[in-house]
Design a protein that fits this description.
This protein is about 80% helix and about 0% strand. By secondary structure, the protein is mainly alpha-helical.
Length: about 140
């Protein structure tokens, strides 16, 4: 499990460094690296979920998070398809629906994990954070 987490961190770091080195003029070479972030998050989440067991409270919280990362990965793939191969352009497509769905799932996973850690939740602040995450996903 530790090796997968370190691998995910290395992938994210290397991807970030390559994006900054290549810059926006090489967008076709850089864009596939944006897929590395969600993919690394999926790998790390599956590793942690497997460690705790998917039937436990931690496992269920991580299941929501992994589902969110998987939906985000699908959204990125769809966006890349519409951006590079479609004549219609990448805006206002089915990829946007996937981006919107990913935020609330991640929020539910984080909130569930917070309850497990016996973190005190102010329901008003939690609801506002949920609305903020949903709004940022738009």
């Amino acid at each position: 499990m530790i090796k997968i987490k370190y691998f995910a961190l290395v992938v994210i770091f290397v991807g970030y460094a390559v994006v900054n080195v290549l810059g926006p003029e090489n967008y076709g070479l850089v864009y596939p690296l944006y897929l590395m972030g969600p993919l690394a998050a999926i790998l790390a989440g599956v590793s942690v979920g497997s460690y705790y067991g998917w039937g436990t409270r931690h496992g269920r919280a991580f299941a929501f998070m992994v589902a969110s990362f998987a939906i985000w990965f699908i959204a990125e793939l769809l966006f890349a398809y519409y951006d590079f191969y479609s004549e219609s352009g990448p805006f206002a497509t089915i990829a946007d629906l996937f981006f919107i769905l990913a935020g609330p799932l991640l929020a539910v996973g984080v909130i569930l994990e917070g309850f497990i850690g016996k973190v005190y939740f102010n329901w008003r602040e939690s609801f506002m954070a949920f609305v903020l995450v949903c709004g940022l996903s738009l």
